[in-house]
Amino acid sequence: MIDKHTSNFGKDDNHHVHSVKNSSYLGIFMTKVTVNQKQKGSKSFFMRIIAFGDIHMDTGDVADIPGIASAEYVIITGDITNYGSSLDAESVLNRLSAVNSSILAVAGNLDQPNVADYLEDIEISLHGRGRRIKGLGIMGLGGSNYTPFNTPYEFSEEELATILASGLDQLNDADNFMLVSHTPPLQTNTDRLLNGRHVGSSAVRKFIEETQPLLCLTGHIHESRGVDHIGRTLVLNPGMLKQGGYIEILYENNEVSAAINLIT
Question: Rounded to whole angstroms, what are the CA distances from 150 to 120, 147, 183, 224, 259?
Fold first, then answer.
């Protein structure tokens, strides 16, 4: 059974960005953001989030991700199925929940629309929604911009912008948040096809430029595993789960760090 987290998200506005530090990590990238408390006497805490996507029905060696069983949350960045239905998504989520039942997710463009409805029904959807975990905001965007393939769950750039605005509104002006977007922002290292063409979303890019989330967790373009920056925002695409890529996010004593790792 998948945990439902709606009641676990407080409305804590007691954080703001103080500094950003970058360093190499496992040959890929890590960013560290120091967040200062506005109130004294806060308790120390540690939180691990594991994120991945482009599952396409194949959960692979997900149980071998270090720390996944004890992570506070697992975030799925879309394409749970391969043109599949809510029943297919349920099958995948049941397998994942056997490892860790604290799941949040968006549907991808290769998921049927009823997958997005299912995620809403079981209260784990981030699509067009904003939530808070210990002062860190999380919002999401499922589906993708239009593709040449007429996949099941696509939106116009205008629709994507509207969905993003809805999620942001629910964060109640949080200074620090991360965006979970199945489709990557345009013109980055994370949206490039093998032929070099950039196919990401202009709406997602504009949103990031204007709001500057700490992180953007993305996917969609399997061959474009990598990282990039848009201002202060670190954009991470771990590629297909079957190929071993995942993102580890650590939130400890007011610091946020994120890195792409490979299952070994």
Answer: 23, 6, 15, 21, 32
Q: Is the pLDDT of residue 8 over 70?
A: no
pLDDT (tens digit per residue) in 61-74:
999 999 999 999 99
Asked if residue 37 lies in contact with residue 239, where contact means CB atoms within 8 angstroms, the answer is: no
**Angle 202-211/157-169 helices, nearest 10 degrees?**
30
The per-residue pLDDT for 19 is 30
Q: How many domains does the chain have?
A: 1
Q: How far apart are CA 129 and CA 171, in angstroms?
A: 8
Interatomic CA distance for residues 21 and 40, integer angstroms: 24
Using one digit for the tens of pLDDT, what is the confidence trace for 200-214?
Answer: 999 999 999 999 999
Range of the domain at 223: 6-262
Q: Is residue 217 part of a domain?
A: yes
Angle at 165 between CA 162 and CA 168, to 5 degrees: 155
Token look-up 């039942």 returns 101
Please report the DSSP string for 60-71 in residue order. TTGGGSTTTTT-
- Could you tell me which residues are beta bridge partners of residue 233? 230
Range with lowest mean pLDDT among 32-46, 89-103, 172-186? 32-46
CATH number at residue 27: 3.60.21.10
**Do 220 and 109 meet the contact criterion of CB atoms below 8 Å apart?**
yes
What's this model's pTM, rounded to 2 decimal places?
A: 0.87
Q: What are phi and psi of 22, to 5 degrees?
A: -120, 145
Q: Which two tokens stand for residue 3?
A: 């945990």
Average pLDDT, the chain: 87
Residue 180 in domain: yes
Q: Is residue 114 part of a domain?
A: yes
Tell me the residue type at 226. Answer: G
**40-51: b or e for each residue (b if 16 or more CB lie within 10 Å)?**
eeeeeeeebbbb
